[in-house]
Amino acid sequence: xxxxxxxxxxxxxxxxxxxxxxxxxxxxxxxxxxxxxxxxxxxxxxxxxxxxxxxxxxxxxxxxxxxxxxxxxxxxxxxxxxxxxxxxxxxxxxxxxxxxxxxxxxxxxxxxxxxxxxxxxxxxxxxxxxxxxxxxxxxxxxxxxxxx
Length: 148
Description:
Elements: E1 3-13, E2 26-33, E3 40-41, E4 44-46, H1 53-65, E5 72-86, E6 89-100, E7 113-119, H2 121-127, H3 131-146
Helix pairs in contact: 2-3
Enzyme class: hydrolase
Keywords: Hydrolase, Nucleotide-binding
Domain Nudix hydrolase: 1-141
């Protein structure tokens, strides 16, 4: 059976300069794991028994980044499922998109992560070394920009 995990791609909007495009004011939150290869990823984790996918995404975000559901706005219409093998077993990860209500809210990391960064799309893609994660970030960004 496939391992199932869920998470949130969290972004914030900075005050854009009058001449800049909306896309330039968006930054994504990535967390650096404190285990393994120390890869960078949005907050995510395994679904607990009795939980639905979205509950998992919000719980994991609270555990890993210290963000409450009330501090985020879930963006309607975006949901992305990734499928890849981990240690020879299939894994499914479901992501939703959520905006920080206050872009200055403090991030409080759990022991699972050693660092976090707010990154513009190009840098977020450099940090997220997996191609499917890069593609997901680009797709989410495109989704946001098309809603403006």
